[in-house]
């Protein structure tokens, strides 16, 4: 009996390993779309996560003779060397000589003039499955611009590392911002291509306009397939641990608690100088070029939680955003009136915008339990889950 159980366990481990190894992104299936690009003037919305066989998709397609006339870069820039919330200017890519237009500066949406010499746009950016992440807002605006100017958008799909769960309060659209653009929960459980179909299908683009999209889906992908990103999706999500903790820890951006910006392990630690004596673990944020040049509590020792070795399998098993850390840190912090009355950056806005609801802050202050808070997310959360099913490309 024991041998049989071991055999079954090894078979299951092998299955997961093989399934993960065999995931093929939309971008890597060049045979499915390069012929479609022939004779067209191409615009690409990309960043460092846009890779083909481990190399920049722009560099790779440019070398293959694809006529890329313009590159559009989101937050952090096309090459990913700009810190969070920092506006990016237009430039010319020195590696290819292609003009680079910033969508995180003077313009956040391609203009008619920018699209005039483009026949087809490509969107190829890795998302991490959390509502706060700004790339979905970028995709929305690109889809709108394409629809308004009669341009087709080709989406090269990529895995969602947090695609295994759907959880959190659905955004109250009175709190719409760059970190919450659509009425979805904190963790939406969709890939960018699925999400694009939802934007079209639910009429969420301006005036209900529809964008003509063509999708290159992945092969051998399931929403619950563990996936370690081959490229950091942004400077401060630099480990698999931080990516998986991000849906839970980004809420702290609207509090007086540091999430480790200014260290080499952001979104894996939590702390504040006023927690000295309550926690033994400490870290000191420093200025780090390209990551966090003016971090909260720069050069000041913070005390709190070290989650670098937290077993993220627990998150996967629960399929929930962890509110326990937020509740714990609020209870531990001595100056309750300052905990939420704080904005760490203009980019992140206040806590309510991150939470997507005016209620969560009030509920934590009132001492509600995690279970009581979760009940308040219904029925909107269940309604979203049902609606989401219409747009799924994968199980």
Automatic annotation (TrEMBL):
Protein name: DUF1343 domain-containing protein
Keywords, comma-separated and alphabetical: Signal
Annotated ranges, domain Peptidoglycan beta-N-acetylmuramidase NamZ N-terminal: 42-240
Organism annotation: Arcticibacter svalbardensis MN12-7
Source species, domain of life: Bacteria
Record's keyword annotation contains Signal: yes
InterPro entries documented for this protein: NamZ, NamZ_C, NamZ_N
Keyword Acetylation carried by entry: no
Domain Peptidoglycan beta-N-acetylmuramidase NamZ C-terminal: 244-394
Cross-referenced Pfam families: NamZ_C (PF20732), NamZ_N (PF07075)
GO molecular-function term, one example from the UniProt record: peptidoglycan beta-N-acetylmuramidase activity
Leader sequence segment: 1-21
């Amino acid at each position: 009996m024991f041998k049989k159980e071991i055999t079954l366990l090894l078979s299951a481990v092998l299955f997961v390993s093989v399934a993960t190894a065999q995931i093929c992104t939309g971008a890597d299936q060049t045979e499915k779309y390069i012929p479609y690009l022939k004779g067209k003037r191409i615009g690409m919305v990309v960043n460092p996560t846009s890779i083909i066989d481990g190399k920049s998709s722009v560099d790779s397609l440019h070398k293959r003779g694809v006529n890329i006339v313009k590159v559009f870069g989101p937050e952090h820039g096309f090459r990913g060397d700009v810190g969070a919330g920092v506006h990016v200017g237009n430039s010319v890519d020195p590696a290819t000589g292609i003009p680079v237009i910033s969508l995180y500066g003077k313009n956040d949406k391609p203009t008619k003039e920018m699209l005039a010499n483009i026949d087809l746009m490509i969107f190829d950016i890795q998302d991490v499955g959390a509502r706060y992440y700004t790339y979905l807002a970028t995709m929305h605006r690109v889809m709108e611009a394409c629809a308004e100017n009669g341009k087709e958008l080709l989406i090269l799909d990529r895995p969602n590392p947090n695609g295994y769960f759907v959880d959190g309060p659905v955004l109250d659209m009175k709190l719409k911002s760059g970190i919450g653009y659509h009425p979805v929960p904190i963790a939406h459980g969709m890939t960018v291509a699925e999400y694009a179909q939802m934007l079209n299908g639910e009429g969420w683009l301006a005036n209900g306009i529809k964008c003509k999209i063509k999708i290159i889906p992945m092969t051998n992908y399931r929403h619950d397939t563990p996936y370690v990103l081959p490229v950091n999706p942004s400077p401060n999500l630099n480990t698999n641990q931080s990516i998986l903790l991000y849906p839970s820890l980004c809420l702290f951006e609207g509090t007086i608690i540091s999430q480790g910006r200014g260290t080499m392990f952001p979104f894996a630690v939590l702390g504040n100088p006023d927690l000295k004596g309550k926690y033994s673990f400490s870290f000191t944020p420093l200025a780090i070029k390209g990551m966090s040049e003016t971090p909260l509590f720069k050069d000041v020792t913070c005390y709190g939680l070290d989650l670098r070795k937290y077993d993220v399998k627990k998150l996967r098993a629960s399929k929930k955003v962890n509110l326990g850390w937020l509740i714990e840190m609020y209870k531990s912090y001595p100056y309750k009136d300052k905990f939420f009355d704080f904005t760490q950056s203009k980019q992140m806005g206040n806590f309510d915008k991150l939470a997507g609801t005016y209620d969560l802050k009030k509920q934590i202050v009132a001492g509600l339990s995690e279970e009581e808070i979760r009940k308040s997310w219904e029925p909107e959360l269940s309604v979203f889950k049902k609606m989401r099913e219409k747009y799924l490309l994968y199980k």
